[in-house]
Amino acid sequence: MKYIIFDFDGTIGDSQRLIVKTLQDTMRERGLEVKSDEACAKTIGLRLDEAFVALFGMSAEEGKACAATYREIFMKNKEIMIVEPFPHVIETLRKLHQRGFVLGVASSRNHCSLDGYVRQMALDNIFTSIVAGDDVEHVKPAPDMVWRALKEMNGEIEEALVVGDMTFDVDMAHNAGCKACAVTYGNGTREQLASADWIIDDFAELLQKLDF
């Protein structure tokens, strides 16, 4: 295993409260039924327009309109709700980078948001590839993000691993033809993530899985 592609929300960054609140604020702004925290959290990992379609069964155009409202509200909410990395994430990523692994990020966020968080956590110098939702036509669980990341990393699918917290991440990895490592501290449960090749409860356990 040489090439590792990480999800961001729920894997690297603890963003659930911010995302759920912004989804619910968007629903209020647009006069929609305000869904529960649990229902909102289940959509994390989908592209924004697809999340609203999944929640309300609305048209693709309505989903895009909701996504635009979400982004406006998000810019305000992110100033008061800081996204912090999960425990052991930063030091583990740096160890992997130092030991020769080629690292990338694949997130359904758009580049403006994703790049900002990567810079905020001072991780931009260790990721060879940063793939966002606006880079591909088909987001998770389609394999497009993995394929794009590996192209930028000059990597081979047989040597790749995807690390994420949702079934979308696991399915994306398997659809692309590579292994998946699921984390249980994010937005998915161990039971939901049972199809992953590896399951870890702490980000630092990844070093053990990779024989360090």
UniProtKB/TrEMBL annotation:
Tell me the NCBIfam families matching this sequence. HAD-SF-IA-v1 (TIGR01549), HAD-SF-IA-v3 (TIGR01509)
Q: InterPro entries annotated for this entry?
A: HAD-like_hydrolase_sf, HAD-like_sf, HAD-SF_hydro_IA, HAD_2, HAD_sf, PGP-like_dom2
SUPFAM superfamilies noted in UniProt: HAD-like
Provide a Gene Ontology MF annotation, just one. Answer: phosphoglycolate phosphatase activity
- Write down the species: Segatella copri
> What's in the keyword line of the UniProt record?
Hydrolase
Q: Which protein is depicted?
A: phosphoglycolate phosphatase
Q: Which reaction does it catalyse?
A: 2-phosphoglycolate + H2O = glycolate + phosphate
Cellular component (GO) terms are: cytosol
Known pathway: Organic acid metabolism; glycolate biosynthesis; glycolate from 2-phosphoglycolate: step 1/1
Question: What's any GO biological process attached to this entry?
Answer: DNA repair
Can you tell me which family this protein belongs to?
A: Belongs to the HAD-like hydrolase superfamily. CbbY/CbbZ/Gph/YieH family.
Name the EC number(s).
3.1.3.18
